[in-house]
Structures are given as structure tokens and as C-alpha cells.
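Quick one: co-fold with nicotinamide-adenine-dinucleotide.
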Amino acid sequence: MNLERDLQDMREYYRSGKTKEASWRKLQLQRLKAFLKEKERDIYRALNQDLGKHHVEAFRDEIGVLQKSINFALQNLKEWMSSKKAKLPAVAVLSYAEIVPEPLGLVLIISSWNFPIGLSLEPLIGAIAAGNTVVLKPSELASASSSLLANALPTYIDSKAIKVIEGGPAVGEHLLQQKWDKIFFTGSTRVGRMVMSAAVKHLTPITLELGGKCPAIIDSLTSSWDKEAAVKRIIVSKYGPCAGQACIAIDYLLVEEKFTSTLVELLKVHIKKMLGENPRKSNSIARIINKHHFSRLKNLLNDPMVKDSIVYGGSVDEANLFIEPTVLVDPPLQAAIMTEEIFGPLLPIITLKRIEDSIDFINSRPKPLVIYAFTKNERLQRRMVSETSSGSIVFNDAVIQFVADTLPFGGIGESGIGSYHGKFSFDAFSHHKPVVRRSYLSEIWFRFPPWNNYKLQL
Ligand code: NAD
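Sure, here it is.
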């Protein structure tokens, strides 16, 4: 394969205007849907091979979400593509303006391994809807999913306009050296910085969907119904999405001291209800992606500073890349488990004197992708919204914001730049071009020199 020649061909194809046609965009989205339907079993197999994901979890988090997103794009494509009339100032009498969305051209999507199908195809939906030609590089770490995309996708969609290129960091770096009209990257903050430096050369616009530590604040809930609902939602948002290997998974909890023991007991009860007495035997929790990440998580647990904080779980099984859902109370804040993104099924609980102290706690750290807060205290909710900064904020649940087509999904500060989903995906891959049409029948005469004070008085 000659990358430079392929990209040249893709640019020429883009210039032919084919990908700008509404019928082409619609057809590609329909073909993407057919890929998900007809290859459903192959996708489940690949996700199970890569991550030990149960097919129900794979449907919930990847195939089902993608089907919904494609349907939403198909329903709204005409409206998104239409130009919008814009008002002009009164002086521009007999002039007309509109905002015309145009595709950016040839775009690069680099994705990560934790939702290897979902996080590859979700931005692709936006790129196609907006009328671009696309190179997609999935993560080499989810190799079964990556090869499924590379081998099967071209048989469904227009392979002159959309190419899947497989490979790891070396291929990624080679791709970043090329000229793109947009780079959409999902991955770590470390590689996100490299993407941003590479984009400088051609002033390429970027979207960076990055990670970080997402805190969840748990107020001392009083009703047993609320407590139970909150704990179940916390468990499914920590151990549920890919065994915690998710950018929007809860990273750690902030709890008032007086509520800690109740919370820990409830967590124990409900973890057992969802994953059984011996979660190692459960197929309802994904496995760690590879040995490198397994060792990274094991080291977080074996840290001598942390060992005494484990109150539940803590066992590991290297042969099966399994890490038991684990709860820790008050590991030292300087320990790696509290300074690095965990990205796995380890849940530290940090106790605070007053729940309001969580605001300072969060504000003294990098801006998170999401803040979750389980509280019915409206004053505290208002303070959280106005006094903290994060990609998004969710009260009394977690992770569900990801599936809303009507909300922009993205980070802020070190958790990312830009956003996507629904119309925001279309916008991420479009330029909104103002088009102004003037008439010759009127004139703004005071815009022309020579200058005199009379012209200022008008
Ligand atoms: P990563 O940064 O290691 O890799 C992401 C992608 O970049 C992969 O395709 C990889 O091959 C490629 N890559 C790696 N090194 C590269 C280089 N030098 N040049 C060019 N490309 C390179 O991240 P990961 O391990 O795949 O994913 C985990 C991270 O991603 C976590 O921090 C997580 O929070 C974040 N994440 C964020 C989102 C989001 O939507 N915000 C979603 C999933 C994951």
C-alpha cells in the first residue's frame, strides 16, 4: 500500500463531488447499518476475543448505540445539510445571507481499544453525514475488532471514500505526518498532545476525545430506595462498561465520612447480586485488554501505600486477565491510584468531612471529562454546576449521557477539545460557510472615502 498515493486518490475522489451528494451520504449510513446487522455475530465474537465482553454488554454499549446514532443521522440528514437563512444589519438592505454547511474534505479518525467498534464508527457516522472522505485507524490493541473493521467494512461502504488502515503507534505517527482537513482522535491525553503538535504543521482542526479521572460525589442519601438506586448505578458505571476501562466510567467516589460504612456495605451486597459470589467465574464483567494494562492495574493495587485501604475484592488472575471488582477506602491521595486515570475495576472511596468539600477537591485537579453527583440537594447541584468545570455533569446517574444524541459529548482542558454525537458530530466534520448575496440596487454610501464628519453623524 502506498499511503501518499491512496490519499491523493481520495482527495481526487472528494473533488469529484460524489461524497457531497445527499444520496451518497444516505446510502453509506444505510450500508453501515447493514454491516452492524449482518456482521452482528462477528462483532460479538471480536469483542469477546479482544475484551471478554458479553454480547449483551456489547449490544448495549456498541452495536445498539451505533444503530440509534445512524437512525438519528438518517432522520435528520436533510435538515443538517440544508443551508440556514441569516439576518443581516438594516444597512445591508436588499442583501441576503445564508449559512451553508460544507464538508471539510479528507479527514483522519484515530480510535481507542475499549469500545473498538463503537468509538471507530460513532465519529465515522458524523464524518459521512457531513460528506467527507475518511481514513479510520482503529486501535491495534483490540486486534480482532480492528481486523474485522478493516476486512468487512470495505465490502459494505464506498471504499474509494472510506478506508480502514490498521496499525499501532508507528502507523499512527506516519498518518499524523500527512496533510488532513481534520483529525478526530479518541485516546490518551499523552497521545492527544502528539496529535495536537502534528496538527500545528498544517493548522489542521482537531477534536480530541481524551480521558482523565471522573469523580462521583455521593451525598448522604436518606431513603433506602435512593441509596439502593444510587449504588446500583454506581456499580454499573464503574465495573459495567468494559470492566471500568471506559473514559466516562466513575474513577473514584467522594463521600461524607458518616455515610462511608453504609455505602461500602451496600456496594458489597449489590456487586455480589450483579456478578455473583465469585466474579472470576462471571461472564458479565469484561477482561483487561492485555498483560501490560493488567500489570499496570495490579501495580496500582500492590502499591504498599494502598494495600491496607482495600475493603473488598483485590484478587487478580493473570492467566485470564481478570481483576476482581475492588473497593478501597481512603488510599493516600499521593498514591498512583489517586493521581493516574485508573481505567479498570478498582474503586477508591475518598472520605470528606462535608460533602460540600468535594467542590474544592475537584477544582484542585485537572478538569474531568464528567462529574457525577448523587445528591437531591438542589443548592449543592446548583453550586456544582456553577463552581466546577468539566466536559459534562450528571446528577443521580452515570454514563447514560453518552447515548443522548441531543447532547454534545466531549471534554474540556486535559479531558479534551471539541465534541460530537448527533448534530454535534455533523458539525465536528463540517465548515459552516456564510454566503452573502448583495444587490446592486442599494448602496451604503458612507462606507466610501473621502471621510468627513458628516458621515460619522449618520
Ligand atoms: P492511546 O492514546 O494509547 O491510543 C489511542 C490511539 O492512538 C490508538 O489507535 C493508538 O494506536 C494510537 N496511537 C498510539 N500512539 C500513537 C502515536 N505515537 N501516534 C499516533 N497514534 C498513536 O489510548 P488508548 O490506550 O487506546 O485509550 C485509553 C485512553 O483513551 C484513556 O485515557 C481513555 O480515557 C481515553 N478514552 C477517551 C474516550 C473519550 O471519548 N473521551 C473514549 C475512550 C478512551
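If it helps, The radius of gyration is 25 Å.
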